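User: Need the bound-state model for adenosine-5'-tetraphosphate:
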Amino acid sequence: MTNNSFTPRVFSGIKPSGGLTLGNYLGAIKRWVDMQSPDTDNIYCAVDLHAITVWQDPKGLKAGTREIAAGMLASGIDPETSILFNQSQVPEHTELAWIFNCVARVGWMNRMTQFKDKAGKNAEKASLGLYAYPSLMAADILLYHATHVPVGEDQKQHVELTRDIANKFNNDFGVEFFPVAEPVIEGPGTRVMNLRDGTKKMSKSGESDMERINMLDDADKIAKKFKKAKTDPEPLPKTLEGLAGRPEAKNLVDIYSGLADMTPEEVIAEYAGAQWGRFKPALADLAVSKLAPISDEMKRLMDDPAEIDRKLAAGADRARSIAAPILDQTYDIVGLLR
Ligand code: AQP
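Assistant: Bound-state model below.
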């Protein structure tokens, strides 16, 4: 089936499992801001129920949820144009996730690389929630009949699973009810890598703080982290092809290009042959000039948690007005007596 019969609608989320990183900003939030439009429903969510698939300190979870919301608002998500809320205030997410648990196949879940990465050798001790996470994510998206899902590269497999779930549900019940949502993965910031190891992605929950830029890092910290970022001894190449096999160098060029709204080709053209002693300070200055206004605004917003809570509750009301009828129809299709 195609999505032609569905109104274009955007959904995406971030889990409050730690402080926001530059990866979350370039891979997700910055692109969400660019996609906002009064003509489309754009639904953005702090997915707190995903965060608890690994242990979260309860006080920290509330603070983290507000930080995610503050980060989105400070970056330019307009809570009037878009719908901004936290997932647990809309219980329809978990209700639809249960239906999808009964649609998704165990074999599909076993292929999810994020579960394997996160559970590691201790898979037996991982929570059942961590294993079922992609089914809840499918519910997050399909509960709104979302057609477009802007995510970083790491979430591509989960959006593909969402498509499989939508297709199987539609086939099983002989309906064209759920859209087959498209992942939107574009631009240089879709896979921001760890500053200490360019083969691993930058994560909120990575072991060392030096491997990531946090959105609340101050100018000194940002400069220090880029200065100490792992690189190789070669200067920047003269062409993009020269970054092949140089993951750390490529990562810093990609970060520059994401922050400066330039293509990686343009960055290379400007810094062809430059030594790291020139490129790294330029990157740090650029990052500070782009991130400091956001982190200042985040801090201001976080000083008034009641106002953030009010905005999230208002967003949740709007989200429920879309979600509840879709869940109702789903129950009806499945044959659950109302
Ligand atoms: N390094 C990254 N580069 C590009 N995009 C990224 N995203 C996350 N890290 C990068 C994108 O941010 C959105 C929200 O992700 P999430 O917080 O829901 O989950 P995650 O991908 O598991 O993020 P983290 O930071 O790695 O969290 P932890 O460490 O707790 O698991 C998604 O669109 C994601 O692609």
